[in-house]
Specification:
Blueprint: H1 3-18, E1 43-45, E2 51-53, H2 58-74, H3 79-86, H4 95-106
Antiparallel strand pairs: 1-2
Helix pairs in contact: 1-2, 1-4, 3-4
Length: about 120
């Protein structure tokens, strides 16, 4: 699979699982965006769920999520590790169900395999 296809499939599944409204600027519910200068970052607090990054636009929020997914793939994360970091059980997430849903929606059979093992080398 092409790297971009994998990243996009994962992003689409995460957006689906997070279930935010179509106009929400942070559809993957990122808590932070350390790649953006701290003086430019804004946050919103959502009750007991805590503080989340408030991107300037939905496009910026999606780009941030794509960036984070690509970074975690490059760090050797498996799907299970990615989701347990993204939506940890200690934040009252059903992480196991989240993994199962994302695996089903992306077609990833082995949730313990490094995600980078799913990437084909680009053609020369």
């Amino acid at each position: 699979m092409k790297a971009g296809d994998l990243i996009e499939k994962l992003a689409a599944a995460i957006i689906r699982q997070e279930g935010q409204k179509p106009d929400y600027a942070n559809p993957m519910n990122l808590r932070d965006a350390p790649w953006i200068d701290a003086s430019l970052r804004q946050y919103v607090t959502r009750g007991k769920a805590g503080r989340f990054w408030l991107p300037a636009s939905r496009q910026q929020g999606i780009a941030g999520g794509l960036h984070l997914i690509a970074l975690r793939i490059a760090q050797g994360y498996s799907l299970r590790r990615l989701i347990y970091a993204w939506a940890p059980p200690e934040d009252n997430n059903n992480s196991a169900a989240y993994v199962a849903n994302v695996a089903k929606w992306t077609g990833i059979a082995d949730t313990a395999a490094p995600l980078d093992s799913l990437i084909d080398e680009p053609a020369p």
